[in-house]
Amino acid sequence: YPPTIRRVRAVDPDTVGRTLAAKRLAAAHVPVEFVGLDGQSLPVDSDSVDTVLSTWTLCTIPEPQRALAEIKRVLKNGGSFHFAEHGRSPDESLARWQDRLTPIQRRIAGGCHLNRPIQMLIEESGLQLAKIETYFVAGPRVIGYTYEGVATKL
Fold first, then answer.
1. Which is nearest to 87 in space by CA: 11, 150, 14, 142?
2. N or C: which end of the chain has fewer CB within 10 A?
3. To which H or E segment does residue 135 belong?
4. How far apart are CA 64 and CA 116, in angstroms?
């Protein structure tokens, strides 16, 4: 993180990941405080956060609309939501495969949905998209359509 960052409040349902990262977290120049397991309910004051970062998370949250509403609630006016998420492909043939494979993917990958329309979910949340890029990452196209960008709370 840049030197201007004073603290990080993290929400992560994977407690095993926390254990694996413990040494790196202890050595970080920025204190990291875990404040919850679920992005659908953030134990953080309204209008108190400058920036929210979500990486490959919205696919697994049971109700991503609730998580995005919480992100909007905790962000200060002018605050930003940075994201990198995989989701629904605009290629209809590929999207049909994502729909077929999502029930299996959910079982084997911690609730991951391959077919969530990330851009639409963010737009419907009331956050304003300031920047978005979409692309396929290397690997199977059915899991690789990626949305990366920034949205702001006005």
1. 142
2. C
3. strand 128-136
4. 9
Whether the Cβ atoms of residue 57 and residue 66 lie closer than 8 Å to each other: no
How do 32-36 and 75-86 pair as beta strands? unpaired
Q: What digits encode the pLDDT tens for the residues 78-107?
A: 999 999 999 999 999 999 999 999 999 999
Here the tokens at position 126 are 């009331």
Q: Which residues contact 20 (CB under 8 A, 6 or more apart)?
A: none
Each residue's pLDDT tens digit, 107-144: 999 899 999 999 999 999 999 999 999 999 999 999 99
Backbone angles phi, psi at 54, to 5 degrees: -130, 120
- Residue 23 CB burial class (10 angstroms; 0-12, 13-18, ≥19): exposed
Name the residue with tokens 């929400």. 11
Which of the 8 DSSP states describes residue 136? Answer: E
3-state helix, strand, coil in the chain (%, to 5): 35, 30, 35
Q: Which residues contact 67 (CB under 8 A, 6 or more apart)?
A: 39, 40, 57, 58, 61
